Amino acid sequence: MSDANAAKSLNLWSGKLPGSCREDQLDHPAAKEIPNLVPFLLPADGTARPLVVVCPGGGYGCRAAHEGTPIAEWLNEIGLHAVVCNYRVYPWLYPTPLMDAQRAVRLARAHAAGWGVDPSRIGVLGFSAGGHLACSVANFGDDGEACAADPVARCSSRVQALISCYAVVSSGPRGHAGSFRNLLGENPAPERLQKLSLETSVTPANPPSFIWHTFNDGAVPVANALLYAQALDAAKVPFALHVYPDGRHGLGLAREALGTASGWTLACEAWLHERGWIG
User: Fold this and answer.
1) Which among 96, 82, 104 is positioned nearest to 30, based on CA atoms?
2) Which of 23, 45, 83, 203 is deepest in the core (most CB within 10 A)?
3) Which residue segment(s) compose the domain that 14 sits in?
């Protein structure tokens, strides 16, 4: 990985930011944030490699640093380009974070030739609420706007792989209420809650998925992973599901974990190898 590439961030949007912010929170520090992505690109060698967009978690209220840069560096270690998506969080409202994450995918495609990226192999990886965002990208991909004046907007936001790490999925009783409160506000419309309970919107167009969770996660119940896997199964989308018996929420790379959850990166690497993403 080039240190220079890792140090340079790229704004997701030019001009006025799209999306909506809570009007009573315009003085909140995060209301003034400029969403960006940070590229972690492997040295150019004439090979077009896959790229993974990384979405850190944080309950849609912040972005956990240990689920950003260290994850991108691990992806580089196993032979993949990566970008960390610094999407907007509270007080920004849905669909703002999703617009940012989809824009990150589009930007990666728009820069594919210059970055040495294979535009047909772009994946998304997310943790916790960032996992909800990653699953949203996987569920709601589109082909871009063919007639858009902005060339980036013409690029597809579809991904070809999903890596879901102790993700928030359901808006039901086994979900994580705080994430949905930050994303949708108080008393959201039932139809919006239903749409964003992501086990309800999986289709056969979803990408192959790697899912992991811990059984005794005290913040986001393992039922979220099971519900999403069941939805993929019903849609006949291939997936790998790893449920580890022990491990707190927010493990990230889990290198300090004492149990089998510390092996999730090796399992994921094997899955990526199986799919031809790494040698």
Assistant:
1) 96
2) 83
3) 3-274
